[in-house]
């Protein structure tokens, strides 16, 4: 492999030298003739500019029509409504400004294309115009930034007065674990140096608060109750990404990061939403078509899709990054409490 790379570098170097020789040769040639653009060329380029901006608009409209249904469904968390609103306002401004400026750019290139009978006017400056096209973006961007800061502050202001549920999300190559605080709703101390045997999260077994901790590989959340996530990483930088809840936070080795939200839509309620039913039906239609081809080839067929909330890693953390996901189930609080009673505590697991 090394020899191949050396030969490749030598060949590329030779090609570069040959091209440089051609450039020097052309630069030494004297020519008294020059190619002058005529009205026909300018007309062609002007009409092409006008056609291109129309093509952009048609492509944009078609993209929304064809793939508009692949966007995320309604938010399943309280703060997600604010994020969606901020995103919508930003997109509206971007599209309005983009449509206007693209049209002006291409239309002026068409209207003021070069002509033999027309001479360009030299326009040195215009303080009024420069002030207008400077102050308008400043005002719009300042408004968006201030609005975004207030939205972010509301999201990150974690209020602990409502008895929030405390859950740890533990990331490692290439999987997730969740740890609940148990009956006291308080997580025990943990350190990666304490990882040994079944204690995969490095929880300090001598900490009284750790005795009733519950470690699971499927995240359950109660609807309508705030959840504070404490996030840790065992090895590299991961990112806890829960798109349906509009939540994302980096998991950094050696430190604890946190994020909180209140789930508002159970898994079953989201499955029954008409928008989600259409998406599931579309996915399963594609899988059914693929299964026909797989069956003919004697290969394993795809399972039919059923919607579930997912916790994903949104950082490229290694070869199996694509497989780093954990199912999230949002349910009524009574169902959540019943599920919690079925789980083994850390003390019970360590005794086995």
Automatic annotation (TrEMBL):
The chain crosses the membrane at residues 6-24, 45-65, 85-110, 131-150. Residues 64-159 form the Cytochrome oxidase subunit II transmembrane region profile domain. It is a multi-pass membrane protein. Keywords: Copper, Electron transport, Membrane, Metal-binding, Respiratory chain, Translocase, Transmembrane, Transmembrane helix, Transport. The keyword Membrane applies. Coiled coil: none annotated. GO terms for molecular function: copper ion binding; cytochrome-c oxidase activity. Binds a copper A center. It catalyses: 4 Fe(II)-[cytochrome c] + O2 + 8 H(+)(in) = 4 Fe(III)-[cytochrome c] + 2 H2O + 4 H(+)(out). It comes from the Bacteria. Residues 162-342 form the Cytochrome oxidase subunit II copper A binding domain. It is an enzyme of class 7 (translocase). PROSITE patterns: COX2_CUA, COX2_TM. GO terms for cellular component: plasma membrane. InterPro entries: CcO_II, CcO_II-like_C, Cupredoxin, Cyt_c_oxidase_su2_TM_dom, Cyt_c_oxidase_su2_TM_sf. Its EC number is 7.1.1.9. Its cofactor is Cu cation. It holds the Pfam family COX2. Belongs to the cytochrome c oxidase subunit 2 family. Subunits I and II form the functional core of the enzyme complex. Electrons originating in cytochrome c are transferred via heme a and Cu(A) to the binuclear center formed by heme a3 and Cu(B). This is Cytochrome c oxidase subunit 2. The lineage of its organism: Bacteria, Pseudomonadati, Bacteroidota, Flavobacteriia, Flavobacteriales.
């Amino acid at each position: 492999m090394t020899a191949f790379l050396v030969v490749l570098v030598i060949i590329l170097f030779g090609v570069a030298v040959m091209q440089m020789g051609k450039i020097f040769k052309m630069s030494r040639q004297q020519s008294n003739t020059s190619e002058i653009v005529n009205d026909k060329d300018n007309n062609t380029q002007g009409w092409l500019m006008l056609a291109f901006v129309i093509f952009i608009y048609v492509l944009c409209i078609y993209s929304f029509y064809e793939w508009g249904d692949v966007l995320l469904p309604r938010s399943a968390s309280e703060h997600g409504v604010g994020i969606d609103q901020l995103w919508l306002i930003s997109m509206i401004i971007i599209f309005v400004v983009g449509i206007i400026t693209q049209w002006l750019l291409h239309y002026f290139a068409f209207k003021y294309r070069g002509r033999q009978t027309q001479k360009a006017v030299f326009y040195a400056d215009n303080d009024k115009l420069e002030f207008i096209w400077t102050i308008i973006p400043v005002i719009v961007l300042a408004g968006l930034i201030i609005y975004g800061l207030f939205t972010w502050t509301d999201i990150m202001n974690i209020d602990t007065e409502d008895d929030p549920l405390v859950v740890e999300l533990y990331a490692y190559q290439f999987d997730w674990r969740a740890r609940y605080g148990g009956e006291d709703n308080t997580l025990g101390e943990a350190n990666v140096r304490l990882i040994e045997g079944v204690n995969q999260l490095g929880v300090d077994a001598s900490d009284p608060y750790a005795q009733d901790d519950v470690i699971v590989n499927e995240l359950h959340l109660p609807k309508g109750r705030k959840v504070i996530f404490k996030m840790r990483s065992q090895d590299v930088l991961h990112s806890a990404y829960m798109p349906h809840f509009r939540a994302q936070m980096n998991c950094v080795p050696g430190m604890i990061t946190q994020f909180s939200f209140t789930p508002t839509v159970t898994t079953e309620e989201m499955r029954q939403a008409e928008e989600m039913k259409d998406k599931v039906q579309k996915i399963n239609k594609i899988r059914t078509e693929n299964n026909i081809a797989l069956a003919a080839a004697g290969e394993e067929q795809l399972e039919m899709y059923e919607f579930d909330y997912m916790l994903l890693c949104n950082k490229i953390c290694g070869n199996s990054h694509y497989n780093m996901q954990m199912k999230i189930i949002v349910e009524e609080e009574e169902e959540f409490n019943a599920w919690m009673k079925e789980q083994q505590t850390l003390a019970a697991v360590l005794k086995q």
